[in-house]
């Protein structure tokens, strides 16, 4: 299994490189072979031209005999004829193929001469023809013949050399492809092994591929994925532990007070008091379960919103009216500063849910007879809504985690304030679903501000 990618990649590389090499070798072989054939034919024509030049200077029997004698010891042959085609000198006895070439029509012929036979694959000879002119008058012709096997041997030697070079090149190619494939696939195989660990639940992976290329980016992504999964695993454990703790506390109260109320000697006054506590704890438990259900719906992307343009001030006034009993209980004043006609593009129900959670949180942590203010400021594409209280604020190190699920400032999870650590998490999720953002900031002289950016118009 580990070598499948190596084999596939290596095979593809090898096929590609072999095809490229074959094309290059074919072009090179064709050019070189044609060049060698042309060299033989041009050399034969030049040799005939040399004999012609000698005869043009001395066209006599002794010179003719000398030229024929020179070629008798060479691989090539010369035949000299007069203008009527009669042979006046030859370095060898003429064979039928030679006579056929001599008897061919001359056609257009320049003083430079020309090749009259170049079919070396099928004919026994290649031949050239050069005219002899003395004093401007045509006196005869020089025919040069070369056995075709000379060219065949040259091409055969060239082919053997190419076969040898191709064999060496193929071996080098295979070795190179093998090494390159191993170098490329080794980190991929290592990444595959590490990702298999992720599927088995091991989130601590070790990828030390540090090159700044695509593989390096992939290695960084896998490493980051492992860290994210490790963080999510830890957060899930913390979340489940927190949920268990948050649910266990009201259930313990319910059971304890139910046991007390069930005692027969309990008087009616105390029984009513404990029943009231039981109702409050049941309500608290119901609210918590509902909030958890909303978080689950958000995670499953089944948390739908129906957005439309809404004027802000009437919505904020409704929130204040709804929160009036809680404000009155702690004698807290809630001020709203909002320019007329400012509107945002929101789901009305979800917006009021956000404001309810934030103001409820501000009331919970604000002292008696204090003030909570809501300030609205319209910007270019967003409307900024700031909710400020006069409570103790939040430690600076806790600000980044204030909107995390089940995050509570009291590590002991004291119920003094009654919070569950879910309300602000829902606020963040709803604001972000609206393409907005939310964050918190401590005031210099005490108190906490929750700042929200809501979009003014529908996103294009």
From TrEMBL:
One of the Pfam families matching this protein, by short name: HAMP
Keywords of this entry: ATP-binding, Cell membrane, Kinase, Membrane, Nucleotide-binding, Phosphoprotein, Transferase, Transmembrane, Transmembrane helix, Two-component regulatory system
InterPro entries (UniProt xref): HAMP_dom, HATPase_C_sf, HATPase_dom, His_kinase_dom, HisK_dim/P_dom, HisK_dim/P_sf, HssS/ArlS-like, Sig_transdc_His_kin-like_C
Domain Histidine kinase: 242-458
Catalytic activity: ATP + protein L-histidine = ADP + protein N-phospho-L-histidine
Membrane topology: Multi-pass membrane protein
Domain HAMP residue range list: 182-234
Annotated EC: 2.7.13.3
Transmembrane segments: 9-29, 162-181
Gene Ontology molecular function, alphabetical: kinase activity
Coarse class of the protein's main subcellular location: membrane
Keyword Cell inner membrane: no
Localization: Cell membrane
SUPFAM superfamilies (UniProt xref): ATPase domain of HSP90 chaperone/DNA topoisomerase II/histidine kinase (SSF55874), HAMP domain-like (SSF158472), Homodimeric domain of signal transducing histidine kinase (SSF47384)
Keyword Hydrolase: no
Superkingdom: Bacteria
Protein name as catalogued: histidine kinase
Species the sequence originates in: Halobacillus amylolyticus
